[in-house]
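Lab notes, practical 5.
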Amino acid sequence: MSAKLRRGDPGFARVVAAFFIGGFAIFELLYCVQPLLPEFARAFALGPATASLAVSVSTVVMAASLFFAGAAAERFGCKPVMVASLIVSALATLAAGLAPNWPALLALRGLIGLSLAGLPAVAMAYLAEEIDAPALGLSLYLFFYYVGSSLNGWLGGLAYHHAGWDGVAALICALLGLALLAALKLARVPPPRHLRS
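Output from the prediction step:
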């Protein structure tokens, strides 16, 4: 069996960068609508609690879908599932911006949560099986903790503060591009040697 990737090995930096960008895309696509909640409340005549469903539906569906994403990776391979996760979530985010009504918006936000589940569910297994133990902590830290705790939702608030709704819309467009970039980078990571590709 091939040795696991270590720091300095060919492909190690590419793997870490791909998962860092992918992790960033996950958390920001989940929470980028948070500054838009007051706008949702006004546009659809909703109360604050109902408007907050735009965030909570995605997170709940994502959490509930993690097991099924792992099963999909067993059947179709981990790289196809991770790449499809980001592409579908980016397209669903774009469609959510064109949603004609509140139920349609919530359905698309649920689809975003469903599709995004494919990356964290498979990424943990990929990193644990493909990265050497001394470098695994750094890899997981960059994928989950730093992105999730330090930047989660911060960019949306900053964009709204400085540029209003137009700034948030521009940020979401940038995140779509970032998600597609992450999908491209994940498609080019070394094939897993200890997991089914």
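Observations recorded by the TA: The two ends are 15 Å apart (CA to CA). Residues 154-187 form the longest helix (34 residues).
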